[in-house]
Amino acid sequence: MDDEKKGEQEFLVSVLIPAKDEADNIGHLVNEIHRALAGHHSHEVVLVDDGSNDDTSAVFLQQCQQLGMPGRLIRHARSAGQSTALWTAARHASGRFLVTIDGDGQNDPADIPALVAQGLTMEDKHPHFCIAGFRKNRRDTRWKKIQSRIANAVRRSILDDGVPDTGCGLKLLPRETWLCLPYFDHMHRFVPALVKRLGGVIAVVPVHHRHRTAGVSKYTAWNRLWVGIVDMWGVSWLIRRSKLPLIERMEVQH
Protein backbone atom coordinates (compact mmCIF):
# COMPACT_ATOMS: atom_id res chain seq x y z
CA MET A 1 0.00 0.00 0.00
CA ASP A 2 1.29 3.48 -0.86
CA ASP A 3 2.77 5.55 1.96
CA GLU A 4 0.06 8.18 1.57
CA LYS A 5 -2.58 5.51 2.29
CA LYS A 6 -1.18 4.56 5.68
CA GLY A 7 -3.45 5.58 8.51
CA GLU A 8 -6.38 6.34 6.20
CA GLN A 9 -9.77 4.72 6.55
CA GLU A 10 -10.32 1.75 4.26
CA PHE A 11 -13.76 1.49 2.70
CA LEU A 12 -15.23 -1.63 1.18
CA VAL A 13 -16.04 0.25 -2.03
CA SER A 14 -14.42 3.19 -3.79
CA VAL A 15 -16.47 4.41 -6.75
CA LEU A 16 -14.19 5.97 -9.37
CA ILE A 17 -15.61 8.63 -11.69
CA PRO A 18 -13.64 10.12 -14.57
CA ALA A 19 -15.37 13.32 -15.66
CA LYS A 20 -14.82 16.21 -18.03
CA ASP A 21 -17.39 19.00 -18.27
CA GLU A 22 -20.14 16.99 -16.55
CA ALA A 23 -21.44 19.68 -14.16
CA ASP A 24 -25.03 19.04 -15.27
CA ASN A 25 -24.77 15.30 -14.53
CA ILE A 26 -22.37 14.82 -11.63
CA GLY A 27 -24.58 16.00 -8.77
CA HIS A 28 -27.41 13.62 -9.59
CA LEU A 29 -24.95 10.78 -10.21
CA VAL A 30 -23.29 11.22 -6.80
CA ASN A 31 -26.71 11.28 -5.13
CA GLU A 32 -27.67 8.01 -6.86
CA ILE A 33 -24.39 6.35 -5.81
CA HIS A 34 -24.99 7.30 -2.19
CA ARG A 35 -28.59 6.06 -2.34
CA ALA A 36 -27.46 2.72 -3.78
CA LEU A 37 -24.74 2.06 -1.18
CA ALA A 38 -25.68 3.95 2.00
CA GLY A 39 -26.59 1.60 4.84
CA HIS A 40 -25.27 -1.41 2.92
CA HIS A 41 -21.54 -0.96 2.28
CA SER A 42 -18.93 1.50 3.51
CA HIS A 43 -17.99 3.61 0.52
CA GLU A 44 -16.34 6.70 -0.87
CA VAL A 45 -16.50 8.43 -4.23
CA VAL A 46 -13.31 9.47 -6.00
CA LEU A 47 -13.79 11.99 -8.79
CA VAL A 48 -11.02 12.88 -11.20
CA ASP A 49 -11.90 16.12 -12.94
CA ASP A 50 -10.08 15.68 -16.24
CA GLY A 51 -9.46 19.31 -17.13
CA SER A 52 -13.08 20.51 -17.04
CA ASN A 53 -13.98 24.02 -18.13
CA ASP A 54 -17.21 24.06 -16.12
CA ASP A 55 -18.24 23.62 -12.46
CA THR A 56 -17.89 19.82 -12.33
CA SER A 57 -15.54 19.97 -9.31
CA ALA A 58 -17.61 22.48 -7.37
CA VAL A 59 -20.86 20.56 -7.92
CA PHE A 60 -19.19 17.33 -6.80
CA LEU A 61 -17.83 18.82 -3.57
CA GLN A 62 -21.13 20.49 -2.75
CA GLN A 63 -23.11 17.29 -3.27
CA CYS A 64 -20.74 15.19 -1.13
CA GLN A 65 -20.96 17.78 1.65
CA GLN A 66 -24.75 17.85 1.53
CA LEU A 67 -24.94 14.05 1.71
CA GLY A 68 -22.24 13.72 4.37
CA MET A 69 -20.55 11.22 2.08
CA PRO A 70 -16.76 10.71 1.92
CA GLY A 71 -15.49 12.12 -1.34
CA ARG A 72 -12.11 12.77 -2.90
CA LEU A 73 -11.50 15.23 -5.70
CA ILE A 74 -8.41 15.15 -7.88
CA ARG A 75 -8.05 17.62 -10.72
CA HIS A 76 -5.96 17.29 -13.85
CA ALA A 77 -4.65 20.68 -14.98
CA ARG A 78 -5.49 19.66 -18.54
CA SER A 79 -7.39 16.76 -20.04
CA ALA A 80 -5.36 13.54 -20.05
CA GLY A 81 -8.06 11.09 -21.16
CA GLN A 82 -10.29 8.52 -19.50
CA SER A 83 -7.62 5.88 -18.84
CA THR A 84 -5.33 8.36 -17.12
CA ALA A 85 -8.24 9.73 -15.08
CA LEU A 86 -9.16 6.22 -13.88
CA TRP A 87 -5.53 5.43 -13.12
CA THR A 88 -5.24 8.60 -11.05
CA ALA A 89 -8.46 7.74 -9.21
CA ALA A 90 -7.27 4.21 -8.42
CA ARG A 91 -4.01 5.53 -6.97
CA HIS A 92 -5.93 7.81 -4.60
CA ALA A 93 -8.71 5.37 -3.62
CA SER A 94 -8.67 3.40 -0.37
CA GLY A 95 -11.49 0.92 -1.02
CA ARG A 96 -10.96 -2.84 -1.10
CA PHE A 97 -13.07 -2.93 -4.25
CA LEU A 98 -12.84 -0.30 -6.98
CA VAL A 99 -15.97 0.30 -9.03
CA THR A 100 -15.62 2.35 -12.21
CA ILE A 101 -18.57 4.29 -13.56
CA ASP A 102 -18.90 6.85 -16.36
CA GLY A 103 -19.51 10.45 -15.36
CA ASP A 104 -22.27 11.08 -17.92
CA GLY A 105 -25.04 9.38 -15.92
CA GLN A 106 -25.76 6.65 -18.49
CA ASN A 107 -24.63 3.89 -16.10
CA ASP A 108 -27.14 3.20 -13.30
CA PRO A 109 -25.57 3.23 -9.80
CA ALA A 110 -28.42 0.96 -8.65
CA ASP A 111 -26.47 -1.86 -10.35
CA ILE A 112 -23.40 -1.40 -8.12
CA PRO A 113 -24.67 -3.58 -5.21
CA ALA A 114 -24.96 -6.57 -7.57
CA LEU A 115 -21.33 -6.14 -8.60
CA VAL A 116 -20.27 -5.86 -4.95
CA ALA A 117 -22.22 -8.99 -4.00
CA GLN A 118 -20.48 -10.89 -6.80
CA GLY A 119 -17.12 -9.54 -5.68
CA LEU A 120 -17.67 -10.71 -2.10
CA THR A 121 -18.30 -14.25 -3.36
CA MET A 122 -15.17 -14.24 -5.52
CA GLU A 123 -12.50 -12.59 -3.39
CA ASP A 124 -11.73 -15.62 -1.21
CA LYS A 125 -11.35 -17.88 -4.25
CA HIS A 126 -9.48 -15.69 -6.71
CA PRO A 127 -6.60 -13.28 -6.04
CA HIS A 128 -7.41 -11.35 -9.22
CA PHE A 129 -10.78 -10.88 -10.90
CA CYS A 130 -12.89 -8.42 -12.84
CA ILE A 131 -16.67 -8.15 -12.78
CA ALA A 132 -17.80 -6.43 -15.97
CA GLY A 133 -21.18 -4.90 -16.66
CA PHE A 134 -23.08 -5.91 -19.80
CA ARG A 135 -25.55 -3.37 -21.24
CA LYS A 136 -28.30 -5.61 -22.62
CA ASN A 137 -30.51 -2.73 -23.77
CA ARG A 138 -28.24 0.11 -24.83
CA ARG A 139 -29.71 3.60 -25.03
CA ASP A 140 -27.47 4.87 -27.83
CA THR A 141 -27.82 5.80 -31.48
CA ARG A 142 -28.14 3.05 -34.07
CA TRP A 143 -24.71 3.85 -35.54
CA LYS A 144 -23.08 3.71 -32.13
CA LYS A 145 -24.67 0.31 -31.45
CA ILE A 146 -23.50 -1.10 -34.80
CA GLN A 147 -20.00 0.23 -34.25
CA SER A 148 -19.90 -1.29 -30.76
CA ARG A 149 -21.06 -4.71 -31.99
CA ILE A 150 -18.34 -4.78 -34.63
CA ALA A 151 -15.65 -3.62 -32.21
CA ASN A 152 -16.68 -6.15 -29.56
CA ALA A 153 -16.70 -9.02 -32.06
CA VAL A 154 -13.23 -8.14 -33.36
CA ARG A 155 -11.89 -7.68 -29.83
CA ARG A 156 -13.23 -11.02 -28.62
CA SER A 157 -11.75 -12.83 -31.63
CA ILE A 158 -8.31 -11.33 -30.99
CA LEU A 159 -8.11 -11.08 -27.20
CA ASP A 160 -10.55 -13.81 -26.08
CA ASP A 161 -11.40 -11.80 -22.96
CA GLY A 162 -14.82 -13.42 -22.46
CA VAL A 163 -16.64 -10.08 -22.20
CA PRO A 164 -19.50 -9.16 -24.59
CA ASP A 165 -19.42 -5.43 -23.79
CA THR A 166 -16.03 -4.09 -22.73
CA GLY A 167 -17.20 -0.54 -23.43
CA CYS A 168 -19.53 -0.62 -20.43
CA GLY A 169 -18.18 1.79 -17.81
CA LEU A 170 -19.43 -0.29 -14.86
CA LYS A 171 -16.72 -2.67 -13.64
CA LEU A 172 -15.48 -3.92 -10.28
CA LEU A 173 -11.92 -4.99 -9.46
CA PRO A 174 -10.03 -5.48 -6.22
CA ARG A 175 -7.79 -2.46 -5.71
CA GLU A 176 -4.70 -4.65 -5.62
CA THR A 177 -5.65 -6.13 -9.00
CA TRP A 178 -6.08 -2.70 -10.56
CA LEU A 179 -2.67 -1.59 -9.32
CA CYS A 180 -1.07 -4.66 -10.93
CA LEU A 181 -2.33 -3.69 -14.40
CA PRO A 182 0.07 -2.07 -16.86
CA TYR A 183 -0.72 1.57 -17.54
CA PHE A 184 -0.96 2.95 -21.07
CA ASP A 185 -3.28 5.34 -22.84
CA HIS A 186 -6.71 3.80 -23.58
CA MET A 187 -6.02 0.83 -21.27
CA HIS A 188 -9.51 1.20 -19.76
CA ARG A 189 -10.91 -0.39 -22.96
CA PHE A 190 -9.02 -3.63 -22.26
CA VAL A 191 -9.26 -4.12 -18.48
CA PRO A 192 -10.80 -7.66 -18.63
CA ALA A 193 -8.10 -8.88 -21.04
CA LEU A 194 -5.38 -7.38 -18.83
CA VAL A 195 -6.88 -9.07 -15.75
CA LYS A 196 -6.87 -12.41 -17.59
CA ARG A 197 -3.19 -11.78 -18.34
CA LEU A 198 -2.63 -11.82 -14.56
CA GLY A 199 -4.33 -15.21 -14.36
CA GLY A 200 -7.51 -13.57 -13.13
CA VAL A 201 -11.15 -14.61 -13.54
CA ILE A 202 -13.80 -12.62 -15.43
CA ALA A 203 -17.49 -12.48 -14.50
CA VAL A 204 -20.23 -10.65 -16.42
CA VAL A 205 -23.29 -9.05 -14.80
CA PRO A 206 -26.21 -7.56 -16.80
CA VAL A 207 -26.71 -3.87 -16.02
CA HIS A 208 -29.03 -1.06 -17.05
CA HIS A 209 -28.16 1.67 -19.52
CA ARG A 210 -29.78 5.09 -19.80
CA HIS A 211 -29.98 7.98 -22.24
CA ARG A 212 -27.59 10.86 -21.70
CA THR A 213 -29.73 13.75 -20.44
CA ALA A 214 -27.16 16.56 -20.53
CA GLY A 215 -23.81 17.36 -22.11
CA VAL A 216 -22.15 15.63 -25.05
CA SER A 217 -19.86 12.64 -25.50
CA LYS A 218 -16.16 13.49 -25.34
CA TYR A 219 -15.17 10.71 -27.75
CA THR A 220 -15.84 10.66 -31.50
CA ALA A 221 -16.67 7.56 -33.55
CA TRP A 222 -13.36 7.95 -35.43
CA ASN A 223 -11.46 8.01 -32.14
CA ARG A 224 -13.18 4.90 -30.78
CA LEU A 225 -12.77 2.84 -33.93
CA TRP A 226 -9.23 3.47 -35.17
CA VAL A 227 -7.46 4.13 -31.89
CA GLY A 228 -9.17 1.02 -30.49
CA ILE A 229 -7.92 -1.17 -33.33
CA VAL A 230 -4.32 0.00 -32.93
CA ASP A 231 -4.43 -0.47 -29.16
CA MET A 232 -6.00 -3.92 -29.53
CA TRP A 233 -3.03 -5.27 -31.45
CA GLY A 234 -0.70 -3.76 -28.85
CA VAL A 235 -2.59 -5.47 -26.02
CA SER A 236 -2.53 -8.76 -27.94
CA TRP A 237 1.26 -8.46 -28.27
CA LEU A 238 1.57 -7.69 -24.54
CA ILE A 239 -0.56 -10.69 -23.52
CA ARG A 240 1.34 -13.14 -25.74
CA ARG A 241 4.72 -12.09 -24.38
CA SER A 242 4.15 -11.51 -20.71
CA LYS A 243 1.72 -13.96 -19.13
CA LEU A 244 2.28 -14.26 -15.42
CA PRO A 245 2.02 -17.51 -13.42
CA LEU A 246 -0.60 -18.14 -10.79
CA ILE A 247 1.04 -18.17 -7.38
CA GLU A 248 0.03 -20.32 -4.43
CA ARG A 249 1.39 -19.22 -1.08
CA MET A 250 1.77 -21.49 1.94
CA GLU A 251 3.19 -20.71 5.36
CA VAL A 252 4.35 -22.89 8.23
CA GLN A 253 3.53 -21.52 11.66
CA HIS A 254 5.83 -22.35 14.60
UniProtKB/TrEMBL annotation:
UniProt-listed Gene3D superfamilies: Spore Coat Polysaccharide Biosynthesis Protein SpsA, Chain A
Organism for this UniProt entry: Massilia oculi
Listed PANTHER family: UNDECAPRENYL-PHOSPHATE 4-DEOXY-4-FORMAMIDO-L-ARABINOSE TRANSFERASE, UNDECAPRENYL-PHOSPHATE 4-DEOXY-4-FORMAMIDO-L-ARABINOSE TRANSFERASE-RELATED
CDD domains xref list: DPM_DPG-synthase_like
GO MF entry, a single one: undecaprenyl-phosphate 4-deoxy-4-formamido-L-arabinose transferase activity
GO cellular component: plasma membrane
Sequence ranges assigned to domain Glycosyltransferase 2-like in this UniProt record: 14-175
Superkingdom, taxonomy of origin: Bacteria
Keyword Transferase appears in the UniProt entry: yes
Keyword Transmembrane helix: yes
UniProtKB keywords: Cell membrane, Glycosyltransferase, Lipopolysaccharide biosynthesis, Membrane, Transferase, Transmembrane, Transmembrane helix
Pfam families: Glycos_transf_2
InterPro entries found in the cross-reference section: Glyco_trans_2-like, Glycosyltransferase_2, Nucleotide-diphossugar_trans
Gene Ontology biological-process annotations: lipopolysaccharide biosynthetic process
UniProt name for this protein: Dolichol-phosphate mannosyltransferase
